[in-house]
Design brief:
Number of strands: 22
Strand content: 15-25%
Helix content: 40-55%
Shape: elongated
Radius of gyration: 31 Å
Largest sheet: 8 strands, mixed
Bound molecules: phosphoenolpyruvate, magnesium ion
Oligomer: single chain
Strand order of the largest sheet: 7-14-13-9-10-11-12-8
Number of domains: 4
Structural class: alpha/beta
CATH architecture of the largest domain: Alpha-Beta Barrel
């Protein structure tokens, strides 16, 4: 059986020499395939590079017919080469032609080679190409040979990533990681941002891939692993969940992996095949990442992510780099790119320099998304592998309105977005001019527009938008962005800041709405099959009143001698409201006992967001001081469609007859009982939906700051009476109509109402 000639270390040294020579990329590749073939005693060595269109083009070969270079291409998934690229896994076959994926390309003259060893050329988990060796004889490649070829492929990945390959591809098809790319994900926060990539966890740039002395590298690796274990142990011991917002659970997983023999063995083997310690870590990390990207089981995916994070820490220890970018190094026009991120980490960046945020994970209701919206930073998530697709400083555009990201955009694309940003800015300017204009419809109906808020960073929006107050203060946000439970004093401080910021305008504080998707990292989680329908919000407040009581106490203290409004989330029955009110009354009595002043006035309200309340709507309207429609949850529960699940969250239209009739009964009940009703869900912030709500009889809205301008502009042009008549007519005959949206849009167009 043939064995490798000189071993992988000799090969790596030779490769380094070739790479250091000032020759053209094609010459380098041609020499590399000869070196590999002779070192591995293979008759064939070929390099396929993946192009933009995912096709794999033969870029260099020793052994196959030379004319096939830049001619032979395998479509994505085609042949053995396509299979390796797709699966990102090595493949060794003693009889390649009997494999079901084998695809014969006559121009290569490949038919005489029986055995085949192919490995993906991976960089940070992304497939850049495939490296293949072949022999005429039927033979079994050893694990060492596979390991050696994978090590070589890592060095090749660097060569491909360095660029210069683009011009080599046939027919001008581009290849290599520095090409422009366009990805689509999920929008987290609206807006258009142009800027340059700042990797939240800067990738360690490994300058030295090939070891001088493998023994010394093994020692460096061992020392770094010990240091890594020590830092994790310390973090766990300190119980420090604040550092980077790590959960204890994640740290425990880290600890487990840091002792995982399989992982350690693979890194050691990579070092022994001739890589430096850091290159070995990266090589194993790249495999992990490739596996992770193909993993569909969310639990296993998460664990692979953890393992990848751990490898990242190890790399930072090895090269002595910082894990996160220093605040003062943040360039102007920064677009932060991260796998995921905690809200506190985003708040740590200088807002004035941020132009966008792009994440691999995190839904629109994730904590970081909430903060991005509060800061007014365009943000997009669910862009797979983005941290591997970009380099520090790459040009990037984030379009938060469509969820699109342009990576290294060509000039024409950039111009389109610049124009879009300019248009947006112009529109914002027009909205700013409306700041002091009262929102009154053409037929004289006052429309009350307030803001949704929850963090200190939200408060300046009040001044900017000229809103009539804060209609929904989500108190849980303070809890969600904190690393530990905020004390009563800290809560009181925030509530006071909100009350002072509004001056004599009202603020409606909503008590803690945690549980469901709103998870506090420091609170023990109850495992629930169905968290949205589970133990959350007021249910926790009533069952474990300690937390609610301390919050109410903080609210009452902040509201001393002021006008205070408190409302309760997820109320499902009138009885729940009565019990919640009793807790407030106890706290008022507590104030009296301690001779502390009460609020000048206190109104207690209810979020209408659980459908059962619609069938007690007259009673709750009589009982509560005010109602607030949480359309986000109300729609989720009405249609039984998870608002967090993108497969169903847009399935039903809130402008369909069923939803509109449900909403109408709330508006009607409020009017009948003289109980003020506000709409504080996202619906009220979308012009066409707000038009529908006005037509149903709602006059008060609370919304995100960026919606204030568009809603005011719409209301100023609307004849509310005419809209009401139109709505009544539409609702009178809805059989077979999926949604009233088209009819309402037509009404708006006909009456010149801007949407
Ligand atoms: C709602 O459900 O509509 C609402 C305003 O509350 P949240 O989005 O915080 O659940
Ligand atoms: Mg809600």
């Amino acid at each position: 059986m043939p064995t490798t000639f000189g071993g992988p270390r000799v090969l790596l040294r030779r490769l380094r020499e070739v790479m250091a020579q000032p020759t053209l990329p094609q010459d380098k590749l041609d020499r590399i395939v000869i070196l590999i073939a002779s070192n591995m005693v293979a008759e064939v060595c070929s390099i396929y590079v993946q192009r933009d269109d995912k096709a794999l083009e033969l870029f260099a070969t020793e052994g196959l017919k030379r004319e096939a270079v830049h001619l032979t291409t395998m479509k994505a998934g085609e042949g053995l080469v396509g299979l390796i690229a797709r699966e990102a896994e090595a493949l060794a076959l003693s009889d390649a032609q009997s494999h079901p994926s084998f695809s014969y390309k006559p121009e290569t003259g490949e038919e005489i080679y029986r055995s085949f060893l192919g490995v993906p050329i991976l960089r940070a988990g992304a497939t850049l190409g495939v490296l293949v060796v072949q022999n005429t004889a039927t033979r079994t490649y050893t694990d060492e040979e596979m390991e050696a070829l994978q090590t070589v492929s890592m060095v090749l990945a660097e060569l491909i990533a360095q660029g210069g390959m683009q011009s080599l591809a046939a027919n001008g098809a581009s290849s290599g990681p520095s090409r422009p790319m366009h990805e689509k994900g999920v929008s987290l926060a609206d807006g258009v941002g142009l800027g340059h990539v700042v990797l939240h966890e800067p990738r360690v740039v490994i300058k030295n891939l090939i070891a001088e002395s493998p023994e010394a590298e093994v020692k460096r690796l061992e020392e770094a692993i010990s240091a890594l274990r020590k830092t994790i142990d310390e973090l766990i011991e300190r119980g420090d969940v604040s550092h980077g917002g790590e959960h204890k659970e994640v740290l425990e997983t880290f600890r487990m992996f840091a002792h995982d023999q399989g992982w350690l063995r693979r890194m050691r083997e990579a070092v022994l095949s001739g890589l430096t310690a850091e290159a070995a870590v990266e090589r194993v990390q790249s495999d992990t990442r490739a596996r992770m990207l193909r993993q569909t089981d969310p639990y296993l995916r998460e664990r692979l992510h953890d393992l990848e994070d751990l490898a990242n820490r190890l790399l930072h220890i090895l090269v002595g780099a910082d894990l996160t970018i220093a605040r003062d190094q943040l360039p102007e026009n920064a677009i932060i790119v991260a796998r995921n991120m905690g809200p506190a980490a985003l708040l740590d960046y200088d807002r004035a320099r941020l132009r966008g945020l792009v994440l691999e994970e995190g839904g629109p209701s994730s904590h970081v998304a909430i903060v991005a919206r509060a800061l007014g930073i365009p943000a997009v998530s669910e862009i797979q592998n983005i941290t591997a697709l970009v380099e520090q400083g790459d040009a990037m555009i984030v379009d938060g309105s469509t969820g699109e990201v342009q990576i290294r955009p060509p000039a024409d694309v950039e111009n389109v977005y610049k124009e879009k940003a300019r248009l947006r800015a112009r529109r914002q300017e027009q909205y700013r001019k409306l700041r002091d204009v009262a929102a009154v419809t053409r037929d004289g109906q006052d429309i009350d527009i307030k803001l949704n808020a929850g963090l200190l960073v939200d408060l300046p929006h009040l001044e900017e938008t000229g809103a009539a107050g804060i209609g929904l203060f989500r108190t849980e946000l303070q809890f969600m962005v904190a690393a530990r439970m905020p004390t009563t004093a800290e809560q009181q401080h925030l509530y006071l800041a909100a009350l002072e910021a509004v001056g004599d305008k009202p603020v409606t504080f909503r008590t803690l709405d945690i549980g469901g998707d709103k998870i506090l990292p420091y609170m023990r989680r109850v495992e629930e099959e169905n968290p949205a329908l589970g133990w959350r919000a007021i249910r926790i407040g009533l069952d474990r009143p300690g937390l609610l009581r301390s919050q109410v106490r903080a609210l009452l203290r902040a509201g001393e001698k002021r006008h205070l409004k408190i409302m309760f989330p997820m109320i499902a029955t009138v009885d729940e409201f009565i019990r919640a009110r009793a807790i407030v009354q106890r706290e008022l009595a507590h104030l009296d006992r301690h001779d502390r002043a009460r609020p000048a006035s206190l109104a207690l309200g209810v979020m209408v967001e659980v459908p059962s309340l619609l069938f007690e709507i007259d009673e709750i309207a009589r009982e509560a001081d005010f109602l607030s429609v949480g359309s986000n949850d109300l729609m989720q529960f009405l249609f039984a469609a998870d608002r967090e699940n993108r497969f169903v969250s847009d399935r039903f239209d809130p402008l369909s007859a069923g939803a509109l009739r449900a909403l109408k009964c709330i508006a009607d009940a409020g009017r009948k009982a003289h109980c003020p009703v506000t709409v504080c869900g996202e619906m009220g912030g979308r012009p066409i939906e707000a038009l529908a709500l006005i037509a149903l009889g709602f006059r008060s809205f609370s919304m995100t700051p960026s919606s204030v301008g568009p809603i005011k502009a719409m209301a100023l042009k609307l004849d509310a009476g005419a809209a009401r008549e139109h709505m009544d007519r539409l609702l009178a005959d809805v059989s077979g109509v999926a949604s009233l949206r088209p009819a309402l849009k037509a009404f708006a167009a006909e009456h010149d109402v801007p949407l």
